[in-house]
Write a structure and sequence with these properties.
Elements lengths: L4 H13 L2 H8 L3 H15 L4 E4 L2 E4 L1 H19 L16 E5 L4 H12 L5 E5 L3 H9 L5 E6 L11 E16 L19 E4 L9 H9 L6 E4 L4 H9 L4 E5 L8 E5 L6 E9 L8 H17 L2 H11 L1
Parallel strand pairs: 3-4, 3-5, 7-8, 7-9
Antiparallel strand pairs: 1-2, 5-11, 6-9, 6-10, 6-11
Length: 316
């Protein structure tokens, strides 16, 4: 097989989607077709690029290298024909209206957008529920957004809305620094059956049902659940006081009194999405939005040693 750009794009979509089924939906192909194509690509490289797991696929160490170089090639192709002094296309007129659920990707994304598109006014809204974000896009009240969904539960939307996966990341656990399991490299959900939990409310994309299903698979139902929709610092202060534990984003930066651990077997995953209207103004700068989000996430990884340790242990 001769390697083509479409093969590199397929690899990137699979990595972003976190599963062959989700990648097939993005690509508009059947899952068997995507699986067959991946097999041909892997035979070309001579080894597996993804590790197949019950919850999806994850890049192998070699696969991560291939993906990084594939993204470089695709980015270079996009720049072909662009003059060196040519700025990315920018929507004209009113401000670009951006919304976002609770995600640490947002600050870095906004900073990069302002640097790359300084002439474009930008407004940012906080919208917790990803389903509400879709509604705003459908009714043309926003132009683009950062949303989330979960493996096997792709965020539903009409053909008027486009989406692209930014990253599928594991869900980690935040504990009080003095917790009985503080010396463990990772912690299983079953070991926390008797804990009080802080959980964010229904996000219209499958949470917290996704969490409760994982607990049921681990053999327990959380006895005490505190619904919490405050900022991350406030949540961490509650945890530091020993009032409960919480699942958290893998790149979270813990405050003093809080430690962050991966969950054994990685039973929970979250996918960050860029969503925008196909016929809207954000379509003109969708690639800039996407690259800014990816670069923002990479910066978060560089500041999260607990996540780096997990990646080194998991992917070698």
């Amino acid at each position: 097989m001769e390697l083509e750009l479409r093969h590199l794009r397929t690899l990137c979509v699979i990595a972003e989607a976190g599963s062959l089924g989700r990648a097939a939906a993005v690509l508009g192909h059947s899952q068997p077709a995507v699986s067959t194509q991946l097999g041909r690509i892997e035979r070309h490289f001579g080894e597996d690029l993804f590790l197949r797991t019950p919850t999806g696929v994850k890049p192998t160490a070699y696969g991560a290298q291939v993906l990084a170089r594939s993204r470089e090639v695709l980015a270079a192709v996009e720049r072909i024909g662009r003059r060196e002094d040519e700025a990315p296309a920018a929507p004209s007129g009113r401000a670009l209206r951006l919304a976002a659920t609770n995600t640490p990707v947002l600050p870095g994304l906004v900073r990069r957008l302002r640097g790359q598109l300084p002439e474009v006014p930008l407004t940012v809204s906080s919208v917790y529920a990803s389903s509400a974000i879709v509604d705003l896009l459908e009714h043309e009240e926003i132009d683009a957004a950062l949303a989330v969904d979960y493996p096997g539960q792709e965020l539903p939307h009409s053909a008027a809305v486009e989406h692209r996966g930014i990253i599928t990341e594991p869900v980690f656990l935040a504990l009080p620094a003095g917790h009985r399991l503080r010396h463990r490299a990772e912690v299983s959900l079953a070991e926390l059956a008797d804990e009080a939990w802080f959980l964010t409310p229904d996000d219209g994309a499958g949470w917290p049902g996704f969490f409760h299903a994982a607990c049921a698979a681990a053999g327990f139902t959380p006895a005490v659940v505190h619904e919490f929709l405050g900022d991350q610092v406030q949540l961490q202060r509650m945890i530091a006081e020993g009032l409960g534990v919480s699942v958290v984003q893998a790149t979270i930066q813990p405050i003093p009194g809080v430690i962050v651990k991966p969950l054994t077997g990685t039973p929970l995953w979250t996918r960050y999405l860029l969503v925008w209207r196909r016929d809207g103004r954000a379509g003109e700068v969708a690639e800039t939005l996407y690259r800014s989000a990816v670069e923002s996430y990479r910066e978060l990884i560089s500041r999260a040693p607990h996540f780096q340790t997990w990646m080194a242990r998991t992917y070698g």
